[in-house]
Amino acid sequence: MSEAPAAPPAGSADPAPAHGIDLLLKPPRPRAAWRLLPARVGAMCAVELQKLRHDRTELYTRAVQPALWLLIFGQTFTRIRAIPTGGIPYVDYLAPGIIAQSAMFIAIFYGIQIIWERDAGILNKLLVTPTPRSALITGKAFAAGVKSLVQAVVVLLIAALLGVALTWNPLKLLAVAAIVVLGSAFFSCLSMTIAGIVLSRDRLMGFGQAITMPLFFGSNALYPVSVMPGWLQAASRANPLSYEVDALRGLLLGTPHHLASDFAVLLVAAALGVTAASALLGRLAR
Amino acid sequence: MTRDTGRRQADAVACTGLAHAFDDTSAVDGLDLTVRPGEVFGLLGPNGAGKTTAIRCITTLLPVPAGMVRVFGHDAAGDRMAVRRLLGYVPQQLSADAGLTGRENVALFARVFDVPRRERAERVAQALAAVDLADAADRLAATYSGGMVRRLELAQALVSAPRLLILDEPTIGLDPIARTGVWEHIGAVRAATGMTVLVTTHYMDEADQYCDRVALMHRGRIRALGTPAELRERLGARRRAAPGALPTLEDVFRDVAGSGLDDEAGDFRDVRSTRRTARRVG
Ligand SMILES: Nc1ncnc2c1ncn2[C@@H]1O[C@H](COP(=O)(O)OP(=O)(O)OP(=O)(O)O)[C@@H](O)[C@H]1O
Ligand SMILES: [Mg+2]
């Protein structure tokens, strides 16, 4: 069957290279088990980036809201000085919160995409590949993280344009990226878990809308935990967004923070999210 | 685990007593099915017969609540990853990612089947060329026609060099030219690779022309099995048809699907299941 495969086209630049089918005759060798997860995560992230490259409208439209928050809310409250920020301008204080918020918004609605993929038959096809369900969910979670990260860069640039004094230390920015990806991984898993329960786009949309605002206002994104009433402080402690904002604020502005514990909380939350969403993925495959 | 392999080459698909029910609807009800290595096997049957459900059990998408399903000797309930590595699957509905180009759609499947990076681009190009999509490869799948999407899905399934290709109504909703196109590509690839093909279709002429063997499924079970010619001859003999005027495969289909088995025809169960099918299709 495999007679001398006609010299493979070195640079596939020429318009119509005569492709044989010799490669389609032999199945690829399975990867070692430990490489499976990173490979699937890489594949899902690549897809997300390719989609962003083909269609950037979402990136731009989603930049409007954070820009307005910073511009209107941020500037106004900077002048009012009503919120104790520990001596920094309020718009600076707000910027990490808005970065976390816009990343969370993208992630919270990521479950809609998985329901769409289910309805379009794409999910079924992926489930028939040698991809364990937990690897598929982890891949999707990190893909949501990548999408959020691109959005976070846009908000970061807007904040810089508005004169927010952010760090440009590359190591710290790398840590910022890690925190944003982890936080988004958690929120997208939350969303995919709800998707596995409600099984419909409309209902998930409703749920998403119902939980994003409480998560946002019940966190330290807009104001420090210390000004909250006691019950809200308790809720804020259970809210992963608060840990994300705390870490981002510490990294970007140099305010007091608890980086190690923030990171640990987000990591555990993301792991729990992956577990829950993977367990419910079977319901979407029915 | 696999007692009967080794002695002879394992069947491509072996279902025994497969049953699957959705809530109160029994979709597959004691299915016995054997697909031999290298053949094109057609699974035929009326809407709601349980073809898609059976296929989803074979592809590991659905659990196997009762009975046994083996793919080349691997248990579809226990050894899912091994089964998946042998499968190429094209589901009933058109399902390419419209937000990606044709090439990216195929590359995704190359990646999740662990095609090493150095041969990925070439393998993807070969899969696209095998279904005649080389020229359209860098257009978004959103711009493809139905026939092109089907061929793209074929390329996605072929890129991992599956031993068993499972196609659920590959020509549904396609015009006659596109239908022929899809079948010709399936035929060419099979001739070159020797892979086994399990296919469902509602077009009896296609089954007659392209399938080595067919099974007629009705109410979750196989009701007739053989080569298209055998089935037609068998019905012809029963009806004492003149040798020159054998019944068509469509007559066989009508005979099975509209036979005495249909004692509950037109009852609530039928209406409900037709509605469900309609909802899923449209
Ligand atoms: N996800 C589901 N939930 C509930 N019932 C289902 C589901 N999928 C299929 N069914 C029911 O199971 C039965 C068999 O359906 P199936 O899709 O397997 O038939 P089919 O032979 O593929 O039909 P078609 O030719 O219309 O594709 C039908 O009564 C259908 O309504
Ligand atoms: Mg079907």
Automatic annotation (TrEMBL), chain A:
The chain crosses the membrane at residues 98-116, 149-168, 174-199, 211-232, 263-282. Keywords: Antibiotic resistance, Cell membrane, Membrane, Transmembrane, Transmembrane helix, Transport. InterPro entries: ABC2_TM, ABC2_TM_bact-type, ABC_2_transport, Nod_factor_ABC_transporter. It is a multi-pass membrane protein. The keyword Transmembrane applies. It is found in: Cell membrane; Membrane. PROSITE patterns: ABC_TM2 (PS51012). Residues 57-284 form the ABC transmembrane type-2 domain. Its main location: membrane. It comes from the Bacteria. Belongs to the ABC-2 integral membrane protein family. This is Transport permease protein. It comes from Streptomyces lomondensis.
UniProtKB/TrEMBL annotation, chain B:
PROSITE patterns: ABC_TRANSPORTER_2. Coiled coil: none annotated. Keywords: ATP-binding, Nucleotide-binding. Pfam families: ABC_tran. Residues 13-244 form the ABC transporter domain. It comes from the Bacteria. GO terms for molecular function: ATP binding. This is ABC transporter ATP-binding protein. It comes from Streptomyces lomondensis.
